[in-house]
Amino acid sequence: MASPDLLFNLWNLFYLGAYQAAINNIDIPGLDVGAAAERDAIVFCSYIALGSYQLVISEIDSSAATSLQVVKLLALYLTGDKDWMRFSVAFWHTFCGTSADPFGAPTMTWPWEDGTNSLAVAKRRMRAHFEFMEKLGVNKWCFHDRDIAPDGKTLEETNSNLDEIVQLAKQLQGETNIKPLWGTAQLFMHPRYVHGAATSPEVKVYAYAAAQVKKALEVTHYLGGENYVFWGGREGYQTLLNTDMKRELDHLANFLQAVVDYKKKIGFNGTLLIEPKPQEPTKHQYDWDVATTFAFLQKYGLTGEFKINVDCHHELETARINGLLGNIDANTGDPQVGWDTDQFMTDIAEATLVMSSVVKNGGLAPGGFNFDAKLSVPFV
User: Fold this and answer.
1) CA dihedral 28, 32, 38, 43 (to 10 degrees)
2) Is position 314 annotated as part of the catalytic site?
3) For a Cys-Cys bond, which of 83, 109, 300, 352 suits 365, CB 3.0-4.6 Å?
């Protein structure tokens, strides 16, 4: 015969909205450690329901159970302390995505698009972006340099295009108090990066990538960004038959060290983040996963200079226990494939595990949650 649920009456009071009655009926004998923590969670949730946020915050200390830390997180959020839940909008998916896939044409059209990648379109996108964020009530955004401004025929023209759009973004930020969670350089889409950027065998490509990151870092700093991300989309190889792995890794480390040096030179105090991805798109990515990236940072003396931007729970927890968790890409992959497919997270169990690591980490600030999920027809 099943034992009685000692917390039944307490839960009943809570779900009926009798919050003060629940608080007054906490003396329940015979509770084990787990049940006692559950009772405390009910009571503190009742205090939250009555608006006593500060009582909850002051009573739950760092030694309390994880379940109570989650309740404290909710109380902090409701008081207006948003550092625990720092949401940001991904400019590239939200305002550049078309919902095309390998088997079909785009299925989304936007009123600000005219079929070109002109400065005029870029400005309309930026204004739509800030209007959307204001309506959402979200005050952080993330961007690649080439998402927000078009390439020019030369680096000078490209930088000029970026400067013009950045000035508009700066103006809109001033009107809305919206700022970047992070910025980055898009070092994977242009044909010049077919064999990598920092690991390219072509010195001209390496130099161009360095100039592009220099500019993107300056722009992120100018806009008040709190982090800067590196996703090595082309930093890897398909076969060792035409790859000098040590040489490429040495080049990548030199590249990242140069960024660290320049960050300090310009006074950018934000966090530098590396985003590991297996098989996306090369067969063997140099930043395959958190453990591989951590080993790379240790080998080249870069620990302490970089943290990790990551998504799935196993990777997130690996980053946390090594003191590397800096930011979360709030998306998920597909269990049937071996790489990140940027889908919306719909698995409650997975989301709970992710948030468990965030709570244990004491939050993510100055990082946050970037909604790096593709807009696609099934999710709209």
Assistant:
1) 30
2) no
3) 83
pLDDT above 90 for 50: yes
Instruction: Give the DSSP letter string of 301-330.
Output: T-BTTEEEEE-SHHHHHHHHHTT-EEEEE-
Residue 355 near residue 70, CB atoms below 8 Å: yes
- At 80 the three-state DSSP class reads coil
Provide the pLDDT for residue 250: 95
378 or 38: whose pLDDT is higher?
38
Active-site residue, from 93, 129, 144, 195: 144
Q: What percent of the chain has pLDDT over 70?
A: 91
d(CA 341, CA 353): 19
pLDDT, the chain, mean = 87
Predicted pLDDT at 243: 87
Mean pLDDT of 312-319: 84
pLDDT, one tens digit per residue, over 222-266 is 999 999 999 888 898 888 888 889 999 999 999 999 999 999 999
Contact 159, 215 (CB under 8 A): yes
For residues 71 and 59, give the distance between their C-alpha atoms in angstroms, rounded to a whole number.
Answer: 11
CB contact at 8 A, 126 and 173: no
Confidence tier at 220 by pLDDT (50, 70, 90) = very high
pLDDT of residue 117: 86
The contacts of residue 92 (CB under 8 Å, 6+ apart) are: 143, 144, 147
108, 55, 106: which is closest to 79 by C-alpha?
55
**Do the beta carbons of residue 132 and residue 89 sit within 8 Å?**
yes
What are the DSSP calls for 347-374, one per residue?
Answer: -HHHHHHHHHHHHHHT--TT--EEE---
Hunting for tokens 């008040």 — which residue is that? 224
Contact status, residue 322 vs residue 294, Cβ threshold 8 Å: yes
